[in-house]
Amino acid sequence: MLTLLAALLLAAPDDTQVLLQQLADAHGPSGFEEPVRKIMVERMKPLSDKLSYDGLGSVIAVQGSAGPRVMVDAHMDELGGMVRRVTPEGWLTMQMLGGWLDQALFDQRWTILGSKGPVRAITGIRDIHIVPTEERAKSYPREAVFLDVGAKSAAEVAALGIPPGDPVAPDAPFAVMNNTQNYLGKAWDDRVGCAVLVEAMKRLQGARHPNQLFFVATVQEEIGLRGAHTSSDLVKPEIGIAIEGGVVKDAPGNHPEEAQEVLGGGPAMFLYDSSALPNRKLVELVRQVALEKKIPLQGDLVQGYGDDSAEMQKSNGGAPTINIVVPVRFTHSHNGIINRRDFDQTVDLVVALLQRLDAAAVAELRSF
Predict the structure, then answer these.
(1) What is the pTM of this model?
(2) Number of helices (H), then strands (E), in the chain
(3) Counted domains in the chain
(4) Cα(209)–Cα(287) distance, rounded to whole angstroms?
(5) Among 135, 170, 205, where does a domain finish?
(6) N or C: which end of the chain has fewer CB within 10 A?
(7) Is-catalytic flag, 135?
(8) What would the pLDDT profile of 267-290 be if each residue is shown by its tens digit?
(9) Which of 199, 221, 238, 261 is an active site residue?
């Protein structure tokens, strides 16, 4: 009996795993972040001295009232879509939100967030028995995507409470990968960053830190970094730290010139992406902190990637920024994988970095 009890206790998820599961499972395509915002506010409000919002719905939670203004950012939205049109036969076409690969869209389960509640849907695919041989090896373009909700007419779709414009989110529940420390889920870009924000706030609540910390959960990152722009207008950061999901090289077909991270290799920082260049002094400070705390640190340079640090960087007359990431395998798809140790070490790194950013350190970062 004692052995069984011990096994059950070991198998029970801790609060961090519960948080990661809640955030991954919540539906929140760009512009429709309400379910995610609810979780973040419930978690952040008790840990903050003040909580407010920008005009788009980004959450701004503050710890501290004196010292440099340091903005720590993660975005709440995920890739998704919107209902574009309902056909007379009851099919739905979809406007995609964010950077989807066409081949990731077909033969998947989705949830439509309708006015009468969630509606299950699938993106159908042509039957192999009738597809000509010459087409079988081809991928279909997104213009061919349609949603099947089981309806036979537009009237039946309307009865489900689904008009054009309703949001559509991937349906891909969280799971622990076969008793490993790897977690499967959708939307790790960037719910993993949202979870880092909450865990860092827990560690720093009531602890001494030499600055004003603005923990910001932004909206509409996937369609143009919009919430980061509006929230940075309000926060006016002197230093900006984006927390994101990274891109790994250790998956079949990936090339080392495309990405350098590995799953389980620890947190990473972006040395380049197509939206922002990090501040070089801040890069060296992150490296120094990681070395002192014995935290493994990976570096990465990624083409075709945009993140909220780009908007923080351009705000308040210019702010030194960095993008720190938790490695993710299979981003921008229904099924991504993160490693729990990578996540915990990212929290360790972010907390240690924030504790180092006093007035003298910030002044040095901002001097030329």
Answers:
(1) 0.94
(2) 10, 17
(3) 2
(4) 20
(5) 170
(6) C
(7) no
(8) 999 999 989 999 999 999 999 999
(9) 221
